[in-house]
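If your schedule permits, I should be very grateful for your opinion on a structural question. I would ask you to consider whether the tokens describe a fold that such a sequence might reasonably adopt. Thank you for your consideration; the sequence and its tokens are set out here.
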Amino acid sequence: MIRSKSIWLMAVVLFLVACKSKKGTTVSKAKEPTHKQKEYRFLSEKLNLEVDRKDNFKLYSFVGEWLGVPHKDGGCDKRGTDCSCFVRMVYEEVYQRILPRNSVEMFNQTKRIDSMELKEGDLIFFKIKSSKISHVGIYLKDNWFAHVSSSRGLMINHLSEKYYKTYYAGAGKVD
């Protein structure tokens, strides 16, 4: 009888020890991304360009909304726009600034900067098959810029691409 009580007592003790939780050990779950993190990820995928907290979310979001809008000379809405109207709309919406309606006037009203000094929101100018400024885009980062191509609409390109290197005319900062 004593032997069976001892076995029973040992079984109870083992059960209690085995069921005791260990202090200090927690199972951590990966944090669910915040809404803002999801927005940055979505924009990064849409623009095929890494967008993060230090970037101007409003600028990248605006570009994302207009990505793929076709080119239309003199156009200024999502049915079709030209390069200067797009840049003008970006400045109105993102920076609350009014810019001229054409790329030549934009060029004349910006402070010239070296391409090594380019910052988000600066303007990029081109002389495409012309002796005067004929095209404008807006600098994003890491030599990427948004603009309206006459053949492919609103898009993002890299300044190192041969076509844009050939016709690059300079950059300007809006005062």
Observations:
- The mean pLDDT is 90.
